Amino acid sequence: MFKKYDIIVVGAGHAGCEAAAAAANLGSSVLLITMNMATIAQMSCNPAMGGVAKGQIVREIDAIGGYSGIVSDKSTLQFRMLNRSKGPAMWSPRAQIDRVRFAEEWRLTLERIPNVDFWQDTVNSLLIEDGKLTGVKTSLGIEIKCDAVVLTNGTFLNGQIHIGEKKFGGGRTAEKAATGITEQLVELGFESGRMKTGTPPRVDGRSLDYSKMEEQWGDEQRGRFSYTNITLPERQRCCWITYTNNEVHETLKEGFEKSPMFTGRIKGLGPRYCPSIEDKINRFAERERHQIFVEPEGWDTVEIYVNGFSTSLPEDVQYKALTKIPGFENVRMFRPGYAIEYDYFPPTQLKLTLETKLIDNLYFAGQINGTTGYEEAACQGFMAGINAHQKIKDKESLILKRSESYIGVLIDDLVTKGTEEPYRMFTSRAEHRLLLRQDNADIRLSQIGFDLGLIDQARLDIVNKKVENSDSIVKYLKTTSIEPAKVNSKLEELGTATINQNVKMFQLITRPQVTLEDIRKVDEKFDELLNNFDLDTIEQAEIKVKYESYFEKELEIVNKMKLMEDREINTEFNYKTLISLSKEAQEKLMKIKPRTLGQASRISGVSPSDISVLMVHMSR
Predict the structure, then answer these.
(1) Conformational region of residue 253, where left means phi above 0, alpha means psi within -120 to 50, and beta covers everything else
(2) Residue 154 to residues 73, 190, 342, 382: CA-CA distances in angstroms?
């Protein structure tokens, strides 16, 4: 019934979709096995893509030739660039997504790839002969042969859903859990653990009073994730913000004695940076209110996602507490929030290619590795799909460096440090985040995508043209002077010092108060020059000017770290004498006693700032 496939991808969530697409586009024959063809690329939790550091990951996937950015752009409800008030290293694209259109776009995208086949079934075990992976066996008893397998099981491995005192098996609401794989892998020598995540209730938007909430619109100047020139939706939808209060908190506390989190029924650790509402009011008892984001699930539905109200309390307590939130007094609930507990495999059992160390040609990607978030899963699936193809075709693996991508940071963190709680990406995890900006992901990574064969020459030419054009703007600024008479009134208006002689435009743009837009308003020739370029190119040029010296310093650090990788540390050194180190770093370093600075930099709990302290001390 089935031919032998090059690669079988198990699970069609964000990781599975990117894995299947990448491997197939590279030339492998791929079978994507999913429990339900109707839930391919289902957004199990919030209907959004991107965010702080996560938006950078989406753009990196797109730059190399993945699809998360394109699919997101086609199904966007609202786009915002977060952290615009901070430096460009912190700017992070985020989009509210139409959940139904997102899943539909992903399925259509996969169906357009000739090398991708589909099968609706559950994989219960791997086929292994003489210690070698040969295929999978499904719940229908079908054995399907292949050369490599990518497991992207999400929260389905022995998944158990909790709502108050009720618990039942499931990988997602109304969907059964997957059994058999964990038990087999443990028998083969793998270490497994349990993790927990959760989701908030969904409510009827027609029952809410939006006049009591704050409106939150998208950016007037629409942005996008993908560097391709796809057509964006013409409109944007509004989101809203409201807040909990003491009455909400007291109502929630009524259900604490039935909370699976507080009674110990949930053993797995949940995401530290995305706690449930009961966890928030328990851990942050001094806070009088917590923010609630009221987010539409799509263009053609009244369903609302109550972001910030993740909970596993009894459904009656959830409903009663919701009615105490301003704007929710007459709320109608579609379904309650719940917590889900599932199996994962500590990622220190993987190589940097995401291939397992114990079994050749077996790859793990997504929540099976202990991560949380669509974007974290998608990039792992993308890299696992690429590396599975490269391995079975006897080609060079793709391992991205920490200094060239957030994807490289994420995978290095997982494989080198491991994780005991759901791993989420933040800009603070990247020691070179000034170089790893969302605006330059195409410049950093498109050549890699081209060399692999995932993007074409025409697209690479666009990237190279962007670099050439932005450099030409910078060159103009460095070689062209401006007269005091032209610019002084604008400088006064901006609250910065005037000039008394001609100065290079470059010098003025380096001032925090002055932008390229300010200069083009007072200089006709410069305005004419900028009219030849798009906004992305102009933005790239401005960032280059304002942060040129910082980039040079950051590159020096990158080069130093290459040299430091093998630099030895005295294993008897007393780290407690370095008071600038965090307490956690002191404890971990004293316990592990790393042999080199490179090794120290990858110890969980030792931050980039701690490594900087060590570097300064060692240089002395």
Answers:
(1) alpha
(2) 24, 17, 9, 15
Note the pLDDT of residue 335.
Answer: 97
Q: What is the CA radius of gyration of the chain?
A: 26
Lowest mean pLDDT among 149-153, 509-513, 616-620: 616-620
Q: Which residues pair with 79 in a beta bridge?
A: 95
Average pLDDT in the chain: 93
Distance CA 551, CA 567 (A): 24
Q: Check the CA dihedral 356-157-153-275 and report its sign.
A: negative
Describe the strand order of the beta sheet including 92-97 as a list of residue ranges: 48-50, 92-97, 76-82
Instruction: With CA atoms as reference, report the closest residue to 156 among 10, 342, 13.
Output: 342
499, HSE (Cβ side, Cα atoms, 13 Å) = 18
Using DSSP bridges, classify how beta strands 303-307 and 291-296 pair: parallel, antiparallel or unpaired. Answer: antiparallel
Q: Categorise residue 480: left if φ over 0, alpha if ψ from -120 to 50, beta otherwise.
A: beta
Main-chain dihedrals φ then ψ at residue 456, nearest 5 degrees: -95, 175
Listed residue (344, 386, 387) closest to 369, CA to CA: 344
Contact 439, 543 (CB under 8 A): yes
* Close Cβ partners of 227 (under 8 Å, ≥ 6 residues apart): 59, 62, 63, 69, 441, 442, 446, 459, 462, 463
Type and span of the H or E element at 49: strand 48-50
Q: Which residues contact 128 (CB under 8 A, 6 or more apart)?
A: 134, 188, 359
Asked whether residue 574 carries a pLDDT value surpassing 60, the answer given is: yes
* Stretch (H or E) spanning 124: strand 123-129
- Residue 506 phi/psi, 5-degree rounding, is -55, -40
- Could you give the angle at which helices 374-392 and 14-26 cross, rounded to 10 degrees? 30
Q: Nearest to residue 40, comparing CAs of 387, 407, 371, 381? A: 381
